[in-house]
Iron-containing alcohol dehydrogenase (Claveliimonas monacensis), 387 residues
Amino acid sequence: MRRTFSHYLPVNLIFGTGKAEVLGEEVARYGKRVMVVTGRGSTKKSGLLDRAKALLEKEGLEVTVFDEAEPNPLASTAMRGAAIAREKGCDVVVGLGGGSIMDCSKAVAFSACNEDPVFDYIYGTKKGSGALPLVLVPTTCGTGSEGNCFAVLTDDGTRDKKSLRDNAVIARASIVDPELMTTMPARVLASVGYDALCHCMEAYMSKICDPITEIIALEGIRLIGANLVKIYEEKKKGLTDLTVMDMDAWSAVCLASTYGGMVINQAGVTAPHGLEHPASGMRNITHGRGLAALTPVIYRRTIEAAPEKFAVISKCLGGRDEKDCVDVIEALLCRLDLRTTLSAEGVLAEDVEWMTQNAFKVSAAGLQNHPKVFTEEEVSRIYLEAL
Ligand SMILES: [Zn+2]
């Protein structure tokens, strides 16, 4: 256990079914002219964007909508949003949507105050000075962006996918309302839920995990193990009636997802995320599906380096010990219809060399914090085996 650490996470987490109703009041604490960052699709279709606008306008706020956030958000998109925010004099930003949208909204809030290319700040060649205040409203339970200081972006030119890390983009408030998550398609739920599990497992395994983070990460693993398949099966059956759905299970997975975001804020991610980012940066694949392809291969090669941690994870997921941990994870992936390979997701054998080099460029810290430090050759072999 780490005996010296600092644990800093100043976000007001507002959690619970129906809590989206407080959006207007909450945002009004921080500004008068709000930019709502969202995507082109689901928040419009579900009516959530209109509902959010009405709640904000009811408090007398002036609303500008930036609806260009895309999956695996590009740095250029965030810069475009930030330019509009400056032009309109926005003084607060709301991120309304899934992980990509929240990350884009964080980068918009940051770039509104820091005009140079955002990757200059990501690579540390420039130092940021603040960001517009942010309020986040997740509509998927996976990324946990509502509980951390990261905004994962992709550089349009180099395809580097890397996090902006700045305490200025920790949300002032995050409104986590499980009801908003229930409209996700089953396939999306499976991949984001698995992402959340990976955040908790990776933080727990990280060499820099502190004792507070450890206990939260383990509870996150347990909650997902006990509830994710249950709500996935509800989605597959096509249930939409909230009075029939198991809202306790939905709440548990949503909470675990926020936990996942919080724990990686402290302990970072490790090898699975470290190797997934080059794959989704290069081929724009779905993050959770990339993780599903990589995790079993990576973990089989890691058990020896941390058997006691694999034993604990296995038990949290209903298994026995370190020996069955990967089997238990694979069984969970099967039940989520998430057994896949990198090639099935669109990665090519010829990408392996670039991804290997890129992993050591964009994920150096994560690879160092993994219980087993892999060489370049080992990373290549992992990619090839996961293809
Ligand atoms: Zn992730």
About this structure: The longest helix spans residues 211-237. The CA atoms of residues 130 and 354 lie 34 Å apart.
